[in-house]
């Protein structure tokens, strides 16, 4: 049996074929039927050959001519034939599968948010193709596997006291990949320029003026993509770093609006790029950087933390100065002096002192100390 014959065998019988058999039984010619129902012979012939559909008018007329065959019978036969014919078309098969794939993806990502925040159009099939290409997979099953493994492959540091919605986490990560795809850089990242980059970043954190825009400009200049992607509900993420294509990427959420949190997050992710992603570009690092609480850490995170701590200090031994403070709540004057001397944003020094109070002094009000002196991202 040919492919076309197999295709036709899966389609319901056209009502014209039923009508043809009925005419044989009734020993009625096409012309007789045409005259009886007030139509031309070519019209009847087209119906018998399946070239013309039986509409409501024809169905009612056939009901009068053939007792036991109501109009609803002819219309139901026509409808079943039309539905089967549509289902057999390649376009409809793709649409049906696309709807199933789209709905199944909604178990892994929030498609409403993806459409709203990513700019994906209303064409569902194009949207699915875009998402598959983004993850470099050929099927929706492989895409689901990639999304299902997200937390295991990327979530290296987390705080157990915080609840994470995995579906929203997948959605947020996907939004960062979409934003990454839209950025084009001409400069390449050169790890030998890391000290120059650290100084430039510290300068902009110290100034804290139009900081996010300046941050993107500086990182782009050094061959690093920068994305500010606001967090979603129950996605307590501060920073994310990965290497896709020719460039590394740093993502921040500004979950905390303080400049010291932003600075630490950026330097932390830069540490991942320099020490981990530069030599292994298949990794990605998704971080929750809490002011307090127990975090799951490993050597990757410790190295990134150490890099961030050293970068923030600009060669200044904070602990040497912190030891001189007799009253932790009277830190303002020293903080201001250190800030001017070393061109470090006061909020960053305060953040380091709060960390010192928590880890070294074990002060019960570590994060209340100096909180009023901290700066927000401007």
Describe the structure.
The protein is mainly alpha-helical. It is built from 19 helices and 4 strands. The chain has helices spanning 3-9, 15-26, 30-37, 41-48, 56-65, 71-88, 90-105, 111-118, 124-134, 140-148, 150-154, 166-182, 194-207, 211-221, 259-277, 299-313, 318-322, 332-342, 346-361, and strands at residues 225-228, 239-244, 247-252, 284-287. Strands 1-3-2-4 form a 4-stranded mixed sheet. Strand 2 (239-244) and strand 3 (247-252) form a beta hairpin. Helix 3 (30-37) crosses helix 4 (41-48), helix 5 (56-65) crosses helix 6 (71-88) and helix 13 runs antiparallel to helix 14. The longest helix has 19 residues, at 259-277. Mean pLDDT is 87; it is low at 1-9.
Describe the structure concisely:
The protein is mostly helical and 378 residues long. The chain is 58% helix and 5% strand. Residues 1-9 have low confidence and may be disordered.
């Amino acid at each position: 049996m040919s492919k076309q014959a197999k295709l036709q065998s899966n389609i319901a019988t056209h009502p014209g074929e039923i009508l043809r058999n009925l005419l044989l039984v009734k020993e009625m010619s096409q012309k007789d039927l045409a005259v009886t129902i007030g139509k031309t012979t070519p019209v009847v012939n087209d119906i018998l050959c399946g070239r013309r559909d039986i509409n409501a008018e024809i169905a009612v007329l056939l009901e009068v001519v053939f007792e036991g065959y109501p109009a609803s019978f002819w219309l139901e036969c026509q409808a079943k034939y039309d539905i089967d014919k549509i289902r057999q078309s390649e376009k409809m098969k793709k649409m049906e599968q696309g709807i199933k794939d789209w709905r199944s993806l909604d178990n892994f990502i929030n498609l409403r948010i993806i459409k709203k925040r990513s700019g994906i159009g209303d064409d569902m099939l194009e949207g699915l193709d875009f998402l598959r290409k983004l993850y470099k997979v050929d099927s929706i099953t492989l895409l689901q596997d990639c999304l299902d493994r997200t937390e295991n492959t990327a979530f290296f540091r987390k705080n157990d006291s915080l609840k994470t919605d995995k579906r929203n986490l997948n959605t947020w990560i996907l939004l960062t990949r979409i934003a990454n795809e839209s950025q084009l850089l001409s400069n390449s990242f050169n790890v030998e320029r890391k000290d120059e980059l650290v100084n430039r970043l510290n300068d902009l954190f110290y100034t804290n003026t139009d900081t996010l825009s300046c941050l993107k400009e500086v990182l782009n200049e050094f061959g690093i993509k920068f994305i500010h992607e606001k967090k979603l509900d129950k996605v307590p993420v501060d920073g994310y770093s990965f290497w896709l294509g020719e460039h590394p990427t740093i993502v921040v959420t500004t979950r905390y609006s303080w400049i010291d949190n932003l600075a630490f997050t950026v330097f932390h992710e830069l540490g991942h790029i320099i020490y981990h992603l530069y030599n292994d570009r298949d990794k990605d690092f998704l971080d929750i950087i809490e002011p307090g609480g127990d975090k799951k850490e490993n050597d990757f995170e410790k190295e990134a933390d150490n890099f961030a701590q050293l970068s923030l200090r600009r060669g200044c031994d904070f602990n040497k100065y912190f030891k001189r403070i007799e009253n932790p709540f009277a830190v303002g004057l020293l903080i201001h002096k250190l800030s001017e001397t070393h061109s470090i944003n006061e909020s960053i020094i305060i953040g380091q002192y709060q960390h010192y109070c928590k880890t070294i002094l074990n002060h019960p009000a570590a994060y209340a100390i100096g909180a009023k002196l901290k700066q927000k991202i401007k």
